[in-house]
Write a structure and sequence with these properties.
Blueprint lengths: L1 H26 L4 H15 L1 H4 L9 H27 L2 H4 L6 H13 L5 H18 L14 H26 L2 H23 L8 H27 L2 H8 L2 H13 L4 H21 L1
Helix pairs in contact: 1-4, 1-10, 1-12, 2-4, 2-9, 2-10, 4-8, 4-9, 6-13, 7-13, 9-10, 11-13, 12-13
């Protein structure tokens, strides 16, 4: 239990800090897709010693299919997240992740015909109320006009893709193990972001020490984030893990204030706490 708790804390901190450095890199002119390609490639190189110890031919079709689709969703989700960070505020975009649980509930209603309980409805009210407080700090307020903003749209795309990715990752872990699933994540993430980089012809700007160190930090933090995520998924239900990960929303608000001097932090902090409470209730008790 102590190790799992530590893994959850590592995931929360590394995820939020990686967003800070990704946002700094986009401010220096790096493409979001290039940032993720560098990240996946760096991690894949670190996985080389593990690769030779795995019997890749022993995995069935179900493993490769889940790894493939997980890689596609992960590459798109992480890239859309960085694109959102490039254009928006960390203290706004972080808390939006709480809507991931609402997306899951809507999917359950449409696909599985599951009717939400009173607890589920109350949780949604909390999420909407918290987001109202946060979005009221913006010029558009809490309105449909927000969806016209590219940063909000990209964050929603990232939310959907990473939510689906979590399911595929869990399936790979069930058939393999934490280390192997991590290698799959790095491999297919590198391949798909690499194809996007080539298509968009995204290349490094002028090299300097700041870009180099921030790229190394992103590689390190994203590696810690994904490995700890896989570890947590191997120890508990995905929904429980996703609920605990919502705490990174609160940390994102604080980091947005610390690193980027973002405004109205107390109001955003209160709103994010309300959203996190709603997400946790929805995931765990509905």
């Amino acid at each position: 239990m102590i190790i799992t708790t530590l893994a959850v804390l590592i995931r929360i901190i590394s995820n939020s800090m990686s967003n800070v450095y990704q946002k700094q890199l986009t401010a220096r002119g790096l493409s979001p897709f290039l940032i993720n390609f560098i990240m996946y490639s760096g991690l894949f190189v670190c996985c080389v010693p593990v690769i030779f110890g795995v019997n890749w031919g022993g995995f069935g079709q179900v493993v490769w299919i889940n790894a493939l689709f997980g890689g596609i969703c992960g590459a798109l989700g992480n890239s859309y997240l960085v694109k959102a960070l490039e254009r928006g505020e960390l203290s706004i975009l972080g808390p939006i992740n709480a809507y991931k649980s609402v997306v899951a509930m809507i999917a359950g209603i449409v696909i599985l015909k599951e009717i939400p309980s009173l607890t589920g409805i109350a949780a949604i009210v909390l999420i909407i109320a918290g987001s109202y407080v946060i979005f009221e700090t913006q010029d558009e307020g809490f309105s449909l006009k927000l969806l016209r903003r590219s940063d909000i749209r990209y964050r929603i795309y990232a939310l959907v893709f990473t939510a689906v990715e979590a399911v595929f990752i869990k399936n790979v872990i069930l058939y393999t193990d934490v280390k192997t699933s991590f290698v799959f994540w790095c491999l297919f993430g590198m391949l798909f972001t690499g194809l996007i980089v080539l298509r968009k012809r995204s290349f490094l700007p002028e090299k300097n020490g700041f870009v180099f160190t921030r790229c190394l930090l992103v590689i390190l933090l994203m590696g810690l984030m994904q490995y700890s995520t896989n570890f947590v998924f191997s120890r508990m239900n995905v929904s429980y893990g996703l609920a605990l990960f919502q705490l990174s929303s609160v940390l994102s608000v604080l980091l947005g204030w610390k690193f980027f001097s973002e405004k109205n932090i107390l109001k955003k902090l209160f709103g994010s706490i309300v959203m996190v409470a709603g997400a946790v209730i929805l995931i765990l008790f509905n």
